[in-house]
Design goal:
It contains eleven helices and 17 strands. The model has no long low-confidence stretch (mean pLDDT 96). It starts with a strand and ends with a strand. It has helices at residues 38-44, 48-51, 81-85, 105-108, 159-172, 187-197, 211-219, 233-240, 256-265, 307-316, 334-343; strands at residues 2-8, 11-16, 27-35, 69-77, 92-95, 98-99, 119-120, 135-138, 144-146, 179-183, 203-207, 224-226, 246-251, 266-274, 296-299, 325-330, 349-353. It is α/β, with parallel strands linked by helices and 354 residues long. Helix 5 (159-172) crosses helix 6, helix 5 (159-172) packs across helix 10 (307-316) and helix 8 (233-240) packs parallel to helix 9 (256-265). The longest helix has 14 residues, at 159-172. Strands 3, 4, 5, 8, 9, 16 and 17 form a seven-stranded mixed β-sheet that branches. A six-stranded parallel β-sheet has the order 12-11-10-13-14-15, sandwiched between helices. A two-stranded antiparallel sheet has the order 1-2.
Length: 354
């Protein structure tokens, strides 16, 4: 089969490799499409968070096939896999991005998304090859879901990002009277925006530097959109809240400036949710978090227990993704696809189609 193989930072190659062999409890999918995540482009550029450095250990092992935002059609089932997942040949399916070990303290407590081993598709050589390929093996501890028969398959690559977005919004614990800000209107941020809208906050503000994304955010439910390049967004939010600041700030831009912006914008006793992969460290005055505002700082990682809801929201149209999935490229054009995804001028979610 054809697959994109990651050997080192800046060294991704389209190659012919063997179709994966499956064993007991495993599933083989013919990939229908795989989204390019910001984490994939940052991996390509050698982010210390992935490759090690700046005091961080290496997370990735290569050579490995990237890609974790995939969907595909079932073409083979290992013994017991059909019964375990409710799958049969010909079904369309998705798999959560993490492949939990099932044995560590987190997995045993049901907190599988924080699995200590932490194998994620597209990062571990020989264990979790990803979806930038014609076929993908779903290991026996994977968490897989059948897509409904009437599911709009073009939206398959958006199940994973939407699952992450739902988790982030749940972490924010949005209340009816809350003034909520979503910063960063990429794939995740636009999913967070639509999910937060379902919570019916008193005010929902979307922030981004790109006018096209701000226009889309208006159509998807934002009460107000703000561009930091055109106005002082911190001052604007404070003006709208009698000088207090927003109740909830959810950050999804991956920019250190967005962190500082949020800590300045949020009110005392507010809730700050961080869901970003950063290329560089962020330096802030931590006394803001404790001594000045006594904030709740909440991380959000992956998509625990949210895939069924993400699938439902996309299937019934509760969450709109047609305008979020903006580009599709054949696997052979992966370099161009990654460039388009990284620049993000007209692109939001870019998908590779084997």
């Amino acid at each position: 089969m054809k697959a994109v193989v990651n050997y080192a930072p800046g060294d991704f190659r389209l190659e012919e490799v063997d179709v994966p062999q499956i064993g007991e409890g495993e599933v083989l999918l013919r990939v229908g499409g795989c989204g390019i995540c910001a984490g994939d482009t940052k991996t390509f550029h050698g982010a210390p968070r992935i490759w090690g450095g700046d005091g961080q250990p290496a997370y990735i092992s290569t050579p490995v096939i990237p890609g974790h935002e995939f969907y595909g059609q079932v073409v083979a089932l290992g013994e017991g896999a059909g019964e375990k997942y409710g799958l049969k040949l010909g079904d369309w399916a998705v798999s959560e991005q993490i492949i939990p070990c099932g044995k560590c303290r987190y997995c045993l407590r049901g907190q599988y998304w924080m699995c200590e081993v932490h194998n994620i598709y597209g990062f571990q050589k020989g264990i979790a090859d990803g979806g930038f390929a014609e076929y993908i093996r779903l290991p026996k501890t994977a968490i897989n879901y059948k897509l409904p028969d009437d599911f709009p398959l073009k939206l398959g690559p958006y199940v994973e990002p939407l699952g992450c977005a739902i988790h982030a919004v749940e972490r924010a614990d949005i209340q009816l009277e809350d003034f909520v800000v979503i910063a960063g209107l990429g794939t995740l941020g636009l999913g967070m925006l639509q999910t937060a809208r379902l919570k019916n906050p008193s005010m929902l503000v979307a922030i981004d530097l790109k006018p096209k994304r701000l226009d889309l955010a208006k159509r998807l439910g934002a009460d107000l959109v703000l561009n930091p390049a055109e106005e002082d967004v911190v001052e604007r939010v404070k003006d709208l809240t009698d000088g207090y600041g927003c109740d909830v700030y959810i950050h999804a831009s991956g920019s250190p400036k967005g962190v500082i912006q949020g800590l300045s914008m949020i009110r005392k006793l507010g809730r700050y949710v961080e869901f970003s992969v950063f290329n560089e460290p962020t330096t802030v005055d931590w006394s803001i978090i404790g001594d000045v505002k006594e904030l709740d700082i909440r991380g959000a990682h992956l998509s625990p227990y949210t895939y069924p809801l993400a699938i439902k929201f996309l299937a019934d149209g509760t969450v709109k993704a047609d305008e979020i999935i903006t580009h599709e490229f054949p696997l052979a054009e992966f370099k161009k696809a990654m460039e388009v995804a990284e620049k993000g001028e007209d692109a939001i979610k870019v998908v590779l189609k084997p």
